[in-house]
Amino acid sequence: MTGKISSYRRLISAVFLGLSMSLVSGQAISNEEFDFDAEPVYTVKTIPNFANVCQQYVEKKLGLIVGQNFKPNGDDFWIQVGEGIINGPVGGKDYVTARMNAYEKALLDSKRNILQEMKVEVGREVAYKTLPAEQKQGLKQSASPEEQKKITLYEGKRDLQSAWNKSLELLNRELDAELEKTEPAKAEPAPKTLEEAAEKQLRLFGERFSDKINIAARSRLSGIRRMFVFDSSPKGTDKGKICVAVVYSDKTRKVANAMFTQNSSLLPPAQPGAPLAAQIPNDDTNEGRNALVNTMGVDMRVDENGNYWLISYAHAAPAIANNAKARQIAAQSAHARALGGLRTFMAEEAVMDTMAQFDESSDQFAGGGDDQFFSKYESFIESKSKSMDISGAIKGSTFGLFHPTTENELIGVYVKWSPVSMEGAKKQYKKMNTVPTTSTGQSASSSSTGDSGAVSAPKPKVGYQGGAAGGVTPNTY
Predict the structure, then answer these.
(1) 175, 186, 299, 442: which has the highest count of C-beta atoms within 10 A?
(2) How many other CB atoms are there within 10 angstroms of residue 85's CB atom?
(3) Alpha-carbon dihedral sign for residues 308, 84, 454, 235
(4) How many other C-beta atoms lie within 10 A of the C-beta of residue 437?
(5) What is the pLDDT of residues 10-56, one digit of tens each?
(6) Which residues have CB under 8 Å from 14's CB, separation 6+?
(7) Which is nearest to 151 in space by CA: 7, 38, 277, 326?
(8) Contact (Cβ atoms closer than 8 angstroms) between residue 4 and residue 180
(9) Which helix (H) or strand (E) holds 378?
(10) Alpha-carbon distance 149 to 470, whole Å?
(11) In terms of C-beta density within 10 A (0-12 exposed, 13-18 middle, 19 or more buried), how is residue 217 classed?
């Protein structure tokens, strides 16, 4: 422990400083019994802007809970929430990119919670011990080599006594006036010898406490989709945050499996819903644009024909404002991220690892105490989806918007997928890659191919709050 190693450093400092003070305070001890039924006497305030709005949406708006829920027919479905910090000032140059990153972090955070609620490995080591009084010889032995040299110097030179006494006298004269100002506090007499100074540095008693927790989980995840997103970036805060509520069920997993295997027969039955166009925010209306600003990730809907649709939304920011090429690149970047969202929905291998450690040491010396605290938290969450085919992912509308309060340029794209578009794409792919029959009657099929998929002006630092929900009816989960 650093306190023990530096014991002789404190000893030598005490020798030259020559004085320590102690204040005696008293505290009245009540003999009255505690009234456990008494009303609270303190007012406890909440931390502003701390609450997770997505959890409030689930509980207060939908009347559901975070965790396992049940439909009227008895089928269960699960809801989880996550949160990510927007690492950048509201309205800053990279605000739009930071928002999209924060959404992905929030999504990973929700998946961390899913892993932990399914199956988690937890290890813990907790230790507590008390330490006895420290002997003078032990104090010497614990000193560093440099301090050992100083100790030898003080112990081996007799003529230091005169210099020692003179230094004490000078310090005492200077401090006498100061002591008068501290009444009724009483000053302890300065140590007269090295031995006496050492006595003051000896540990009378001590204790050590340690708590170390390791948490790990790993699982395949599929069919996890976003149902609500909220951006909370109040004015005056250093960084905003984005929360997400996700839902998953047997139905969402079956849709993911059908997409993964490209087999429509795996899809569960569904009741017809509204036309798909009516279920996607319309950027021709102010209401639609407000929704699109906050719509990120994969949504799931059912159209009027009972067909399932996955819609994956993503945002990107142009590197240069009011620049056509920069906007085009941003749209392509958003398209790549939207396709990535569909791939993750299909299936992913997720792993998490967390370590939390809390250490405490406390020592009591004749001249006072030494309390030290140490805590550490490390967390890791990773999602991997290996490369594989996605058939029928149709690029939908590309929209360009100005953020409603910061005026940042926001380029968005959404990608649509359904079993209908999948089957159509498979047929089209087969036709495209079939070589026409030659006059000799020979034919061949080609091998499959694949596609891989300056600074703007500063923005005002203004607050922002906004959210968007999607697919929150039981028909879509």
Answers:
(1) 299
(2) 15
(3) positive
(4) 10
(5) 444 444 434 333 333 334 445 678 888 999 989 999 998 888 999 99
(6) 20, 191, 197, 200, 201, 367
(7) 7
(8) no
(9) strand 368-384
(10) 73
(11) buried
- Amino acid 259 reads M
Phi, psi values for residue 211, rounded to 5°:
-140, 115
Please choose, from the candidates 106, 107, 88, 108, the residue with its C-alpha nearest in 3D space to the C-alpha of residue 98: 88
> The tokens of 283 are what?
């950027």
The pLDDT of residue 386 is 95
The first and second tokens of residue 164, run together, are 């020692």
Residue 367 has, within 13 A of its CA and on its CB side, a CA count of: 21
The Cβ-side half-sphere exposure at 16, using a 13 Å CA radius, reads: 7
Q: Two tokens at 56?
A: 């409030």
Reported as a pLDDT band with limits 50, 70 and 90, residue 333 is very high
Is residue 397 within 8 A of residue 415, CB to CB? The reply is no
Q: Tokens 């639609």 map to which residue?
A: 288
Spell out the residues 6+ positions from residue 291 whose beta carbon is closer than 8 angstroms to its own.
281, 468
